[in-house]
Amino acid sequence: MEFFPQPEKPNTTLLFEKSANYFDSEVVPKRVAALVPRAKIIVILMNPSKRAYSWYQHMRSHNDPTALNHTFYEVVSASDMASQNLRTLRNRCLTPGLYAQHLVRWLDFFPAEQLHIVHSDELRNDPVNVMHLVQKFLHILPYLDYSQHLRYDPTKGFFCQVLSNKQNKCLGKSKGHKYPSMDRVSEQHLRAYYRKHNVILSKLLSSFKSEIPEWLQNELKDAEVSKI
């Protein structure tokens, strides 16, 4: 609570926190609802296969021994007979991508009106529109036009804060890592692994009139082809 002091202007100040670990926790939604029942929840979703690979590469960049000593395919295809470290990394790669399962858990404690879905590709490619929708969701006034504050930086490969006509302020060196493309075998394995979950996700998003992102549409096409 030390990170959330009572604001001087509570009616005009928004307090927020971001975490990569809250979303897929079995206990967090209930705890959040007990502490801040009127909280607005913003969830960023990306292709779960890409998310799994990104986490693996993140662990390698932090010199995690298990990630350094095993290929990505060895990690995501590890059996329950594998070592504890390998199973732990496998679960951290795979489990957060079971989006529908986790969203339903949050919806057990929060009405759909308090949940806003952001799709990672749109956030990366069109952050101005994303922030427009976020401000609308949060009822933020006065409205901030992010087109005046964000600009694509070709060196970093993503949008950054505008400081002047020629200068941007970008996220640090830990952001924007480039790494080899995922191997074909791992890609096929993960598509099969997430296929059923992605179908359920599409139905869930449709139920509260949330946009079906392009990556999910592509995965659903793949699921249809696999049935033929």
Automatic annotation (TrEMBL):
Pfam family, one: Sulfotransfer_1
SUPFAM superfamilies: P-loop containing nucleoside triphosphate hydrolases (SSF52540)
Residues annotated as domain Sulfotransferase: 35-196
Transferase keyword on record: yes
Keyword match Protein biosynthesis: no
Keywords, sorted A to Z: Disulfide bond, Glycoprotein, Transferase
Binding-site positions, 3'-phosphoadenylyl sulfate: S54, K175, G176, H177, K178, Y179
Disulfide bonds: C160-C170
Cellular component GO terms, alphabetical: Golgi apparatus
Single annotated GO MF: deacetylase activity
Gene3D superfamilies for the chain: P-loop containing nucleotide triphosphate hydrolases
Signal peptide start and end residues: none
PANTHER family assigned to the protein according to its UniProt record, in alphabetical order: BIFUNCTIONAL HEPARAN SULFATE N-DEACETYLASE_N-SULFOTRANSFERASE (PTHR10605:SF56), HEPARAN SULFATE SULFOTRANSFERASE (PTHR10605)
Protein known as: Sulfotransferase domain-containing protein
Species name: Lymnaea stagnalis (Great pond snail)
Lineage: Eukaryota, Metazoa, Spiralia, Lophotrochozoa, Mollusca
